[in-house]
Structures are given as C-alpha cells and as structure tokens.
Amino acid sequence: MSNVGQLIHSYPVKLCNLTARAAPYFVGVDVSKATLDFAVVKLNQILFYQQVSNDKKGITEFLKVLRQHTKTTISQCLFCMEHTGIYNNPLLKALHQLAASIWVERAVHIQESVGLTRGKTDRAGCPAG
Prior knowledge:
It contains five helices and five strands, in the order H-E-E-E-H-E-H-E-H-H. It is an alpha/beta fold. A five-stranded mixed β-sheet has the order 3-2-1-4-5.
C-alpha cells in the first residue's frame, strides 16, 4: 500500500467532488514538520493567511480564527494539502474528528499542475496561494 493509501487508511479522508456551492470556502494548507500555513479562499479571493504550529494548539488556534473571519462552519470548507507523510497527521486527525471535507494530493501532481517554482515561499507553496 502506498504512503497516501496508508494515510487515508489511518484517517478516513473524504475525497470529495464538491462544488463552490457545497463548499464555498477553500482552505489550502502548506504542511511542514513545525508549521502549517493556511490560505483561505472564497470565490477566487484570498480572504486571509495564517501560520500556526503543526500541533493541536496551533490547529485549534487556526480553526478559531477561521470561524471569526468567515462566520462559517467546517462543513462549508474544503481543506486541501499535499501529502507530506507523518507531518499531515495532526491536522488530518483534527479535521477528521470534525467531519471536515479533506483533499490530500501527491506533491508530484501539485508540482506538475503549477510548474516548477524557484524560490518557493510558504505562501507560494500553499495550494491556494
């Protein structure tokens, strides 16, 4: 079984085909060992960025800010991130417990879809950024 398959097996991830009407908020996440960089988008407009620690405290902090900025529920968000092995697990666990819609993509697929970017920054690396 591939790493992505193991990850999905560990945390049942809803790989959805949602429309903008079903999930009007897109949350792109750049995952690293120490931090999570979030970009929140609605109707192709970036609403805000936030960087938090890649742990339960940081994730809770982001979810609180998300609710404050958007006045929405988790069910109206689609969380998208690249597969980074075990570094995804704290966020996947938290989102799964909230029954969030999640899309995990292979890094190679993301690189092929946007091309090679020199001088990558966290904002440029965020799937929504």
